[in-house]
Design goal:
The protein is an alpha/beta fold and 432 residues long. It has helices at residues 4-14, 48-51, 60-72, 84-96, 111-126, 143-148, 152-156, 180-193, 219-232, 283-286, 302-317, 320-341, 370-382, 407-431, and strands spanning 27-31, 34-37, 42-45, 103-108, 130-134, 166-169, 200-205, 208-209, 215-216, 235-238, 263-266, 277-282, 345-351, 354-359, 385-386, 388-390, 396-399. The protein has a 4-stranded mixed beta sheet with strand order 1-2-3-15. It is globular. Bound molecules: pyridoxal-5'-phosphate.
């Protein structure tokens, strides 16, 4: 039997360290909310491949759809010989996207590529160049993705220069003393000190910041941004790459605010683990690019599109939006009870099944505890629970279970994490 240690040695010899990995266990098999490593150890998966497996690992309906597509063909290139599953998935997403304006959808491969395309479309539509993004945002690792990303280390450091004309304003986070009014004021200041509104093509926002720390944008703020964009002729891009496909209790997180985006990059859980991304947008804006201006050899892979159609069926047939809300409530009651006992849990944030706890020293929001955060993730892994960290200051544990997880299994995982936090927190109290 090959061991984790042996594979790690090969990994270190053969792959660059720039691709950081959060664990040193190698996956052998995964089903629904469980992963087994090459040594046969079982983990409950609260990471879902970074919000990709909302429908669970190897959902039988998704696997069957992909196998059926594999028997037909795996690639023709949509730009050469188009195929049914691409246009069918586009039509379904157009009908499901928030708002009544007619929509069109292009498919690509990665989230970053979807963001790139949204920016291209917005620029072509407006004839303008500037883009406004938010500090703490994450929009991918391509050059434009990085330009839009609002966190320097480790993403941007040493990789510049990035595409020009990208401006960052603070994202509203009450817990850190930045109100929605502060963020709106920063937009007005930007127009006074840096750039005129008529140079701005688009504003891009995650309805819940993902890598930045699972901070939800307040609903009134999102509505004000919609008005702000309308006032200035700016395309509103809502990045639903991490928040989409039932994760927050709605198919798209922006639905909580009742806002209709102009363009919506999607990826991750769109195809339940098969590489597929897209931009869903208002038809008139999407059609501002002439033929040949958009596309890519692999964009809209037939396997990904077949999976995407099955994903939409599973979300509907298994009521995954309702399940996300129930998961959020289960995590909320566990986390708030734990917070009452352990002041290291400074904040609990729940948007459907996009859940996080923020770890601080002495209950102080301004004293992030990144060390403790790392230890919680490492010890939980030792005890069979796979968790991810995130946050601009590295002090957030995020909970992203598959939405198909059984409540009992989630309860077991939370008990493990709760014991780990209690153990580490008692150790800290004794030491002080
Ligand atoms: C909100 C958001 N946008 C864009 C991306 C980039 O997606 P990808 O890694 O598929 O390029 C991510 C990935 O985590 C994301 O969370």
């Amino acid at each position: 039997m090959v061991t984790n240690r042996e594979l790690l040695a090969v990994r270190e010899q053969s792959t660059p360290r720039g691709v950081g990995t959060q664990t040193t266990v190698f996956a052998a098999k995964a089903r629904n909310a469980e992963i087994w490593d090459v040594e046969g150890k079982r983990y409950i998966d609260l990471a879902a491949g970074i919000a990709v497996i909302n429908t669970g690992h190897n959902h039988p309906a998704i696997i069957a759809a992909v196998k059926a597509q594999l028997d037909r063909f795996s690639h023709t290139c949509f730009q050469v010989t188009p195929y049914d599953v691409y246009v069918e998935l586009a039509a379904r997403l157009n009908a499901l996207a928030p708002g009544r304006t007619p929509k069109k959808t292009i498919f690509l491969t990665t989230g970053a590529e979807a963001v790139e395309n949204a920016v291209k479309i917005a620029r072509r539509h407006t004839g303008r160049s500037g883009i406004i993004a938010f500090s703490g945002a994450f929009h991918g690792r391509t050059m434009m993705g990085l330009a839009l990303t609002g966190k320097v280390v480790p993403y941007k450091a040493g990789f510049g220069p990035f595409p020009a004309e990208v401006f960052h304003v603070p994202f509203p986070i009450d817990y850190h003393g930045v109100t929605a009014a502060d963020s709106l004021a920063a937009l007005e200041t930007l127009f006074k000190s840096d750039v005129e509104p008529s140079r701005i093509a688009a504003l891009i926002i995650e309805p819940v910041q993902g890598e930045g720390g699972f901070y939800p944008a307040p609903v009134p703020f999102l509505r004000e941004l919609r008005e702000f964009c309308d006032r200035h002729g700016i395309v509103m891009i809502v990045d639903e790459i991490q928040t989409g496909f039932a994760r927050t209790g709605k198919l798209f997180a922006i639905e909580h605010a009742g806002v209709e985006p102009d363009l919506m990059p999607v990826a991750k859980s769109l195809a339940g683990g098969f590489p597929l991304s897209g931009v869903i947008g208002k038809a008139e804006i999407m059609d501002s690019v002439p033929p040949g201006g958009l596309g890519g050899t692999y964009g809209g892979s037939p396997l990904g599109c077949a999976a995407g159609l099955a994903v939409l069926d599973v979300i509907e047939n298994e009521s995954l939006c309702d399940k996300a809300a129930a998961i959020g409530e289960q995590i909320r009651s566990w986390a708030t009870a734990l917070q009452g006992k352990h002041p290291c849990i400074g904040d609990v944030r729940i948007t459907g099944a996009m859940c996080a706890i923020e770890l601080v020293k002495n209950g102080d929001a301004d004293s992030p505890d990144a060390e403790l955060t790392k230890e919680i993730a490492a010890k939980s892994l030792e005890n069979g629970v796979l968790l991810l960290t995130c946050g601009v200051r590295g002090n957030v544990i995020r909970f992203l279970p598959p939405l198909t997880i059984e409540p009992e299994m989630l309860g077991d995982a939370l008990e493990v994490v709760g014991d780990v936090i209690a153990g580490l927190s008692n150790r800290m109290q004794k030491a002080s």
